[in-house]
Design brief:
CATH class of the largest domain: Alpha Beta
CATH architecture of the largest domain: 3-Layer(aba) Sandwich
Helix content: 25-40%
Shape: globular
Number of strands: 7
Order of helices and strands: HEHEHHHEHEHHHEEE
Largest sheet: 3 strands, antiparallel
Strand content: 15-25%
Structural class: alpha/beta
Radius of gyration: 18 Å
Strand order of the largest sheet: 5-6-7
Number of domains: 2
Number of helices: 9
């Protein structure tokens, strides 16, 4: 959605370049994935610097349409992936994923790429897009790229710009909480409540005011888990911090 950063320049664009002869970057702040009272109007927009960054990265094409080019007057067709989009961010942001899958399908139809890359930071989004592409027979390979992080572990995100210095100092505890759960898992712990408790206490120790959700889900179906399963466990979290809502996850 623009406001490009290290996650794009160090993760997504190089991953696309490694898999394709030509790389196209779409930049579009998609109005249909924002709910009432969310940050559509104030979402960071920096098209000129984004274009310069893409040029420096050797991107071949940047597609940056106006909203009415994607949703012309009278537009009324949407695409929904059902079960995968119900929990986690889907519960907190009704309608969000309908906007995501609709615009991604439109971009895939317009660009006709052989491969499209998405970050694992938005794990639920990645899983929903994979499901959509498979269900609708879209001939595009969907590749997940590992989350790019700041040196202190905070997942790089455009919304990090909303953080005050004090909030920025506390934000890395989100990832450290996930790492605490991962370390316990590596030591043999499989009880979900124990793993989530470790993560929750670490996040709460930073004084982060509101956890939207902290859950363990199947990496394949996003069904809830009672016990962690190697290779099939996603621990996902969303935390409100000032004006920002930050998401992160870890796969076990």
């Amino acid at each position: 959605m623009g406001a490009l950063h290290g996650g794009h320049y160090e993760g997504l664009i190089p991953a696309a370049r490694a898999r394709a002869e030509r790389v196209c970057v779409s930049i579009f702040v998609n109005p249909t994935q924002f709910g009432p009272g969310e940050d559509y109007e104030r979402y960071p927009r920096s098209l000129q610097s984004d274009l310069e960054g893409c040029e420096a990265q050797g991107v071949d094409v940047v597609f940056a349409p106006a909203p009415d080019a994607i949703y012309p007057p009278g537009y009324q067709t949407y695409v929904s992936v059902e079960e995968l989009t119900e929990p986690l961010c889907g519960h907190s942001r009704p309608g969000h994923f309908r906007g995501v899958t609709t615009v991604v399908l439109k971009l895939l139809m317009l660009a006709q790429p052989t491969v499209a890359v998405f970050g694992w930071k938005d794990a639920q989004q990645l899983l929903a897009i994979r499901r959509m592409v498979e269900d609708l027979n879209v001939p595009t390979e969907i590749v997940g790229v590992e989350t790019v992080r700041e040196p202190d572990g905070l997942a790089i995100s455009s919304r990090n710009q909303y953080l005050t210095p004090e909030q920025r100092a506390a934000a890395p505890q989100i990832h450290k909480g996930l790492r605490a759960a991962a370390e316990a898992f590596a030591s043999g712990e499989r009880d979900i409540e124990t793993l989530l408790g470790l993560a929750r206490r670490r996040i709460a120790s930073a004084g982060l005011p509101r956890i939207d959700y902290l859950e363990a889900r199947s990496l394949k179906t996003l069904a809830p888990l009672a016990r962690a399963e190697p290779g099939n466990t996603l621990i996902a979290v969303a935390v409100y911090l000032g004006k920002a809502r930050l998401i992160d996850n870890i796969r076990l």
